[in-house]
């Protein structure tokens, strides 16, 4: 049994970047031997294990063959006869198909080091097109600061077009697509991901005709979703499973964008639940988005906080409702 460090962590180390975590491939072993050695199995489709001490992922060397549609349409083969080179051959990009042994020796059968030096994103083989998620993931790689200035080879661009024309993007799990987008949102240049998606027409059905972007003012990934929504006229991202906290921020931002000095509706102010949502409102205003009037909304928040709503609890429901409306009318008159 031999273990090798593989994938993005080797790539990042060669680029002088500290990897967040490390992945390992195991050659010459079996699931039974791994479990006997104390590794905990976690893989659903193929044997992946957690190291008993470091909790890093160790996967048995494997090969794969396309057998159906989408990300899950693969059959995997693994046994002690699968070599390291066999395993590296199935990977997406040459820069991700470099391995390192326990002595620090690099195994690089597809010249990934040359592509790192020349800043090229090149596919290992034509099997790249068998996994449609790789087309979207390619854009995510461009969002990393240390890979953002890499160029995509003409051959790989042609493969991305082939994936688009195949219609296989429609078979992808929305959870997998969201995971790639959200990772890009957390990186240094998320706009490069979205521009890649737009330029290569990979936005449908997931992002519905979003526009190209110059950049994001927010460093927080949740607020970047608000920016993206606002810059695209509050496009509904209903094809991807956004977490409830992001949906809430987008909903609040949309309400804020509807508040205009010439058309201030009491219902709009009341529905904001300012006392409950003040922190989120101020976070959104800090973005300086052109789709909303920051000064007007800030003034509304300050005036709203001065209202003694607690005193309304002494009134019966009908009186309470009418008095609240009067208080909000008074607030509007001060704007």
From TrEMBL:
Report the GO molecular function annotations: ATP binding; metal ion binding; nucleotidyltransferase activity; RNA binding
Any one GO biological process: tRNA processing
Q: Which UniProt keywords apply?
A: ATP-binding, Magnesium, Metal-binding, Nucleotide-binding, Nucleotidyltransferase, RNA-binding, Transferase, tRNA processing
Q: Which domain of life is it from?
A: Bacteria
Specify the Poly A polymerase head domain's residue ranges: 4-122
Among InterPro entries, the record links this protein to: NT_sf, PolA_pol_head_dom, tRNA_CCA-adding_enzyme
- Give the matching Gene3D superfamilies: Beta Polymerase, domain 2, cca-adding enzyme, domain 2
Give a single Pfam family match.
PolyA_pol
| Family designation | Belongs to the tRNA nucleotidyltransferase/poly(A) polymerase family.
Protein name per Swiss-Prot or TrEMBL: tRNA nucleotidyl transferase
Which organism is this protein's natural source?
SAR86 cluster bacterium
């Amino acid at each position: 049994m031999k273990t090798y460090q593989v994938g993005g962590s080797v790539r990042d180390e060669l680029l002088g970047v500290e990897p967040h975590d490390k992945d390992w491939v195991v050659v010459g072993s079996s699931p039974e031997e791994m479990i006997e050695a104390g590794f905990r199995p976690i893989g659903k489709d193929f044997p992946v294990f957690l190291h008993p001490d470091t909790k890093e992922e160790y996967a048995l060397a494997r090969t794969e063959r396309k057998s159906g549609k989408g990300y899950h349409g693969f059959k995997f083969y693994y046994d002690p006869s699968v070599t390291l080179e066999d395993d590296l051959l199935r990977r997406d990009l040459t820069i991700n198909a470099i391995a390192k042994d326990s002595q620090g020796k690099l195994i690089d059968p597809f010249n990934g080091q040359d592509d790192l030096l020349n800043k090229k994103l090149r596919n290992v083989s034509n099997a790249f097109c068998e996994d449609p998620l790789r087309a979207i993931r390619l854009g995510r790689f461009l969002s990393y600061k240390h890979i953002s200035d890499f160029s995509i080879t003409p051959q790989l661009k042609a493969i991305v077009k082939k994936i688009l024309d195949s219609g296989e993007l429609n078979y992808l799990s929305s959870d997998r697509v969201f995971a790639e987008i959200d990772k890009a949102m957390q990186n240094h240049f998320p706009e490069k991901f979205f521009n890649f998606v737009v330029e290569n027409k990979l936005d449908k059905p997931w992002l519905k005709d979003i526009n190209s972007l110059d950049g994001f003012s927010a460093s927080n990934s949740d607020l970047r979703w608000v920016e993206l929504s606002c810059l695209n006229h509050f496009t509904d991202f209903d094809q991807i499973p956004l977490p409830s906290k992001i949906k809430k921020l987008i909903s609040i931002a949309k309400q804020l964008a509807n508040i205009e000095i010439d058309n201030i509706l009491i219902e709009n102010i009341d529905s904001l639940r300012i006392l409950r949502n003040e922190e989120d409102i101020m976070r959104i205003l800090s973005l300086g988005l052109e789709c909303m009037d920051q000064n007007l909304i800030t003034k509304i928040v300050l005036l709203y906080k001065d209202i003694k709503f607690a005193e309304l609890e002494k009134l019966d429901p009908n009186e309470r409702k009418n008095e609240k409306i009067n208080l909000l009318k008074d607030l509007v008159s001060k704007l």
